[in-house]
Write the structure tokens for this entry.
Amino acid sequence: MGKLVKASSRRGRDGRGLAPLATVAAFVAAAGVVLALVGCGSATRSDNGAATSSLAKRSVTAGSVTITFEPRRLGPDEAVFKISFDTHEFELDQDMVRQAHLVVGDTPWPVVAWSGDGPGGHHREGELRFTAAGPAAGTATLSIDGFAEPVSATWDVGN
């Protein structure tokens, strides 16, 4: 006669039950469903519907300084840009609050704050924040004074 084996007594190769494997499989499946529903892309949307990721990072070289502008947010309330500077020629001593300017459409947006490295050194990085002074639509131009050559980057937003 054949031997009866209960389903609950089945064991994996290591002698443990198969329940831990089933639990892991269920967790992985659930995580996949959540990612599919939420979306796992890197684009974030501002309140005006424009994808922030569509505003590409820009790099400008002015003399021996490379300045990188990376839009983080450009929406109806504020604009935030990650800015980095790199040189090996001189100290980077710009006052970012006084020397940075953002114009969106034809409207200047005032600088609220610079949070990042202070003046000095050959490498600086931080975030510039601006308060919206008009709609986040048209051409946005971010410029920074105090370099040997004009420094600016331009994006088309919310059209």
Observations:
- Strands lie at 58-62, 65-74, 78-86, 100-104, 107-109, 111-116, 123-131, 138-144, 151-157.
